[in-house]
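Assemble and predict.
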Amino acid sequence: MFTNLQLTPDTLPQIAQVELHPIDKAYFKIIMINKAIIYGAGFVALVFIKLFASNIAMQSNFWYIFTAFVVFCVLNFILALLAFKKRKYALREKDVIYAHGLLIHKITTVPISRIQHIETSRSWFARQLGLATLNIFTAGESGSDLSIKGLSDAEATRINDFLSTKVNGGV
Amino acid sequence: MVFDFTEPARQSPKGILVIFGFKAFKFLKSFFILFVAYGISLFQNNTIGISPTVLGLGFVAFLVLLLIYAILNYLNFKFHVSADDFHLNTGILNKDNTIIPKSKIQNVYIKQNFLQQIINVVSLNIETAGDNKSEIEISALDKPTALALKKQLFAREPLADATKEITKEDEVFFRASLKRLLLEGVSQNHFKSFLIIASFMVGLYSEFEKYLEKLQLSERIEGAVNFDKQTLVNIFIFYLFIALLLLLVSLVFSVVKTLIVNFNLEVVEREHTLEINKGLFNKMSLTLTPSRIQNLVVKTNRVKAYFNLYGLNVMQAMVNKKQQKNFAMVAMEKEQLQHLIQKLLKTYSAATEKHKPAPYYKRILWLRLVVFFAILNLPAYFVFGTYFWMINIVFLCFALLYVHVKFKKAHFQISAEHISIGSGFIETVTNILEIHKIQALKLQQSIFQKRNGIASVVIATASKSVVIPYIKEAEANEIYNYLLFILESQDRDWM
């Protein structure tokens, strides 16, 4: 049946009013480990420079470079911590919503009717912490794909099952 | 003549020649530089250990191997069409069996390259919306067979619909005259081909630098030009001369390219579909089904608009960049363009209310330019010395023009079924898409924009993403909610 109701902006479902869930806190450990590996690599490189580099300019300014590196790491870490709180997701009857980003905040919505397939992946670290990443693929370019990282295993399975039945069952 | 595709069949035996020719050409192309290098070293009488006879024998042996490969490839390539699917068996050692359901075929197009034109065969490509690898090419069929096969592949509902299609006369809706194509070539944005030519020159130069030195060409050139290096003006004039020369070359390049690619461009209107035919060396013919189109892009610029030249690009899901160019129709008149858009998007109307981005957009444009030009000041200092700050006057003029034009051209329209977004600086680009083709929506906002209450909406379809840039946050939210509502309350498929 064809209906053509007049739409006023307030009567539509509001994206701003959706209650978004934060992702599992344990995921921050994975971010920390990843960061630690990168910072560690940088630190080791600096130590090597200090010990073996014969460049005088490099040696005399070493502590400036080192300080800059430490400041960068600290800032980067604080940003990661703040950005972590922005990672949120929500499921509605007809779509999946994922919000993330501190400096540039993005809210992506994929209608369930446009989902092509769903995938859950677990890295080795994630398995130890009981976490999973949910990848939602749509047609076409990667710009419209969605990847929700840091869900608990149970939550990922629940969402996966929910979406799978919806996608397969139609409507 | 009756064509039967129900039994597995090979392509025309001429296919061997096509496969062979194609592979040989590819080989020659990728080792071209090596051959030239060898030729030059022969020319200078210093052999590198391989005598011409050995090399010649090796070459012949290689060609024989290639021929055997082509024959085996031909023998192991069989296809047929069943009621609902297209089947293909390929592979010399590893056998592949590909089945494509007719309903999933996005495009069927017929191509004819130079070699194929000589031996009078065509190749038929079948494309789905999957990744690029799933594309199928049958490289040699005679034309009637190819046309019949194409018809079979498109015949979804048997008989009833097929006869209806025949009753309506195919009508050539638009044919680009040579004059219009020439105008199209001249009025293009030549900076693109300028960049291509320039990078090609630089690449060529670095490749042949050694040989040029040996031939003492550079000294000859310098002797011929003999410009005075002392004064700044002379250097400037010299660079200007080179730039003008390159610009002229790129102009000719774009014109010739446009002519070759779009030679005999023809748009045929069928009852449900459109057919595009074009090309000089690479002839091609492709059929567009409206339901498979994800985006429409209308392109023109000031000069083109003056000559009444409009281009329409049709974008489909997962078509690679090279293929994408084939879906462009150029040099059309405005009425023809509008007719085509109406044909492809039945209910589209350009008359809905136009909205503009927030003035904040200007600020962003300024910011980007200032950062870019500030960085450019540094190399300018080394080139022009103490007078380097003068270039900022040029920059300022450019920036004023750029921001003004960019902002003037930016607009968007949203109706119950379509979104159209205008943008561009030199070119005027309008993206049109149907709301039910949207795959995902993204609301994007930086922390500075949040403070100013500004946000952008990114609309992703299966072929590309378009942005409604820097609008008021409330408006962005409204659009986001509205589009989602339309998308989710209807049960329309995107393909």
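Chain B has 17 helices and 19 strands.
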